[in-house]
Design brief:
Strand 1 (about 1-5), helix 1 (about 30-40) and strand 2 form a beta-alpha-beta unit. This protein is an alpha+beta fold. It has helices at about 30-40, 55-60, 80-90, 95-105, 105-115, 160-175, 225-230, 250-265, 305-310, 315-330; strands at about 1-5, 45-50, 65, 125, 140-145, 160, 180-185, 190-200, 200-205, 210, 240, 270-280, 285-290. The longest helix is centred in the C-terminal third of the chain and has 17 residues, at about 250-265.
Length: about 325
């Protein structure tokens, strides 16, 4: 088959933008690893997801596209390439434009979870400090509404006072030019769950626990930008993950059940990684869904979807081809 590979390549620091502006995009190493996996069985056509992407897709006309493009700008950026592909009638891996846009809008995603009675922390979306905050109990989590890869979720994203909350809202609206998600802070353990499949053919990979006790004492127990990109690096990896998680069968089943329900409620397809945190009573709550999960290839990179796949007995190449074949089956290819 002729398989297109759509991606966004990291560009490095850009003047006038936050230091984490391209955190969602992939390195050449990751793009090469995905291309190598696909090339083991198919002809691969790399296509960077820039302003020329639609012309490249029209010219190449691949049989199917393996999409890892996070998009360039705007709150619907993850939907741009899938929308182009739908317009051109080209099959592709992963969720459709609507699901990708909703999952990147953390507030809208949580509204849908709430409608389907999927537990998620209490929340509120605000656009400025002038709006009245309904959430009264501190601490609170404060995040940009339309970001992934821990962009804008720094160590001080946990706020303990009204003045800190105001400062953080101001900072996010100024730097990221978007609304802010306020969320109840849950004190329990945190997990991330990788899922593959569609409808009756679903697979939940071994659950990964994020072990915050491996972080320095002055770092809050959240998977912040500092924890993800600064403290935990390939050359100085932290022992921050445990896979499979050390949990009993009852909790494992509860986490699997809630993530499968969230996957279905948001209309995810083929694959997704879902972040879960326990409340004070030990009940799992959905934090967010990542229908374009990170897939850094090296074990020392601590990328959670490949980590779960390896624990399940899959090589990196097998994981990538599994996603492709899941999409092919969905299209009847």
């Amino acid at each position: 088959m002729r398989v297109g590979l759509t991606f966004n390549l990291k560009k490095g620091h850009k003047e006038g933008l936050p230091a984490d502006w391209d955190a969602e995009w992939d390195t050449e190493e990751t793009i090469d690893a995905v291309r190598s996996a696909l090339s083991s069985e198919h002809e691969v056509i790399p296509i960077e997801a820039d302003e020329n992407a639609v012309e490249k897709l029209k010219g190449a006309r691949p049989d199917i596209v393996f999409n890892i493009a996070e998009g360039r700008d705007g709150p619907n950026r993850e939907a741009h390439i899938p929308a182009m592909l739908e317009m051109l009638g080209i099959p592709y891996t992963g969720s459709d434009p609507m699901t990708l846009s909703i999952c990147l809008d953390k507030g809208r995603a949580k509204e849908i979870l709430f409608f389907y009675r999927v537990s998620t922390p209490g929340f509120q979306v605000v656009s400025s400090v002038r709006e009245k905050v309904r959430l009264k109990k501190f601490p609170l989590m404060v995040k940009p509404l339309h970001e992934g890869s821990s962009k804008g979720v720094k160590n001080d994203a946990v706020v303990f006072t009204a003045s800190d909350l105001k400062k953080k809202i101001d900072e996010i609206t100024l730097q990221y030019h978007q609304p802010v998600l306020l969320e109840e802070y849950l004190e329990g353990r945190e997990f991330t769950v990788s899922l593959m499949g569609n409808n009756g053919d679903m697979r939940v990979l071994p659950i990964v626990e994020i072990k915050f006790d491996s972080l320095p004492k002055d770092i809050n127990p959240i998977y912040s930008y500092e924890a993800k990109w600064i403290l935990d690096r390939a050359d100085t990896p932290l022992d921050i993950f445990q896979c499979p998680a050390d949990i009993d069968g009852r909790l494992n089943n509860k986490i699997e059940k809630i993530t499968l329900k969230a996957y279905k409620s948001l209309g995810c397809r083929d694959w997704c990684r879902i972040d879960v945190r326990l409340d004070s009573k030990g009940n799992p709550n959905i934090l967010e869904l990542n229908p374009l999960p990170g897939i850094l290839p090296k074990p020392e990179d601590n990328s959670c979807f490949p980590k779960a796949a390896r624990t399940a007995g899959m090589s990196y190449n097998e994981m990538i081809l599994n996603v492709l074949n899941t999409a092919r089956k969905r299209y009847g290819i």
